[in-house]
Write a structure and sequence with these properties.
Keywords: ATP-binding, Cell inner membrane, Cell membrane, Membrane, Nucleotide-binding, Sugar transport, Transport
Number of strands: 19
Shape: globular
Domain ABC transporter: 4-236
CATH topology of the largest domain: Rossmann fold
CATH class of the largest domain: Alpha Beta
Number of helices: 8
Membrane topology: Peripheral membrane protein
Strand order of the largest sheet: 6-7-8-3-9-10
Structural class: alpha+beta
Helix content: 10-25%
Bound molecules: adenosine-5'-triphosphate
CATH architecture of the largest domain: 3-Layer(aba) Sandwich
Largest sheet: 6 strands, mixed
CATH superfamily of the largest domain: P-loop containing nucleotide triphosphate hydrolases
Distance between the termini: 39 Å
Subcellular location: Cell inner membrane
Protein name: Multiple sugar transport system ATP-binding protein
Strand content: 25-35%
Order of helices and strands: EEEHEEEHHHEHEHEEHHEEEEEEEEE
Radius of gyration: 24 Å
Length: 336
């Protein structure tokens, strides 16, 4: 494995600026997730590292070596795509062995067999090695696709939304397994997604990309608790952070210049009305182990998470207070 570094990378397609002056280092053995909406430049960033696109400006290094001029095959990266790109006419075993059979690798049959069986166990597909790859469920095919990247032991794994075509349950399972495998192998991995749960649960560090720009890079906790601006604050958290005008809800100590307050569940205190009510419960969404309380205050709607036994009903008057919320200025930047 190796450290991979992007320095001041820019890439445009005609008028469209896909990546703008991006600087990012993925440390040896680190799992970095790029999180951003559609069109943010996530896939382009992976393709620039893989050598499938050439930067207009800037440098890519892998293990300290400048990759300018290096063809994709010479870069020692493994790419996993959103859609399992398996060879349909080959068995699972042959799909896994394929990347190891290149003459440049000069691996013996025993070594190939050992690696294929090790990886098949790791991605839990060892019971289907003789199956045609088309005779597998979606989750199994994606395990094989991930396994095929893993057998190679490259400098870095690049993964482009590899779980997005799977149903929620499988996605949850493979998320855990991918994280386990990555920690076991100490792999360097750059993973792109627009799923905040994947980013929060798997990443050592998350990079928030928007409109081709890296807006913030930090641990999941840092990104969640200390967003640098409104855009980052709105990317993470379920339900979405409430963004309300300063002065609407009492409490907190807004610094000079505060325009918007960011209030997540942990930043809101709710008390029974007792004569000072300033808000009203609109409705309650029961999610099973938790509920979403929808509230209204002076025409603004807020949502917060509550335990399902909280003794309130739609129409109840309540007192809403802020507790150390996030503050943002008129330019959307965080004020501390
Ligand atoms: N080959 C191309 N030709 C023209 N424009 C492109 C090309 N590849 C990407 N773009 C543009 O560059 C921008 C970034 O695209 P990119 O695919 O990197 O975004 P993304 O964050 O991966 O989006 P998604 O989540 O939808 O895959 C978009 O505006 C896209 O239309």
């Amino acid at each position: 494995m190796a450290e991979v570094s992007l320095q001041n990378i820019s890439k445009s397609f005609g008028e469209s600026k896909a990546v703008r002056n991006l600087t990012l280092t993925i440390r040896d053995g680190e799992f970095v997730v790029l999180l951003g909406p559609t069109g943010a430049g996530k896939t382009t960033t992976l393709r620039l590292i893989a050598g499938l696109e050439k930067p207009d400006k800037g440098r890519v290094t892998i293990g300290g070596q400048d990759m300018a001029g290096a063809a994709p095959a010479g870069r020692d990266v493994a790419f996993v795509f959103q859609q399992y790109s398996l060879y349909p006419h080959l068995t699972v075993y042959e799909n896994l062995a394929f990347p190891l059979r290149s003459p440049a690798r000069r691996l013996g049959a025993d070594e190939i067999d050992r690696r294929v069986r090790d990886v098949a166990k790791m991605v839990r597909i060892d019971h289907k090695l003789e199956n045609r790859s088309t005779r597998l469920s979606g989750g199994e095919m994606q395990r094989v696709a991930i396994g095929r990247a893993l057998v190679r032991k490259p400098s870095i794994y690049l993964m482009d939304e590899p779980l997005s075509s799977l149903d929620a349950k499988l996605r949850g399972e493979l998320r855990l397994e991918l994280k386990r495998i990555q920690s076991e192998l100490g792999s360097t991995l750059l993973y792109v997604t627009h799923d905040q749960i994947e980013a929060m649960t798997m990443a050592d560090r998350i990079g928030i990309l928007n409109d081709g720009e890296l807006i913030q890079l930090g641990t999941p906790r840092e990104i969640y608790s200390n967003p640098v601006n409104l855009h980052v604050a709105a990317r993470l958290g379920q339900p979405h952070i409430n963004l309300i005008p300063e002065g609407l809800v009492p409490g907190g100590q807004p610094p000079k210049g505060t325009k918007t307050i960011g209030a997540r569940t942990e930043h809101l205190e709710i008390h029974a009305g007792n004569g000072n009510a300033n808000a009203e419960i609109d409705w309650i969404e029961h999610l099973g182990d938790q509920s979403h309380l929808h509230m209204r205050i002076a025409g603004h709607k807020l949502v917060t998470l509550a335990n399902p036994y909280v003794p309130v009903m739609p129409g109840d008057k309540i007192t809403l207070m802020l507790k150390d919320p996030l503050y943002f200025g008129s330019d959307g930047q965080r004020l501390v």
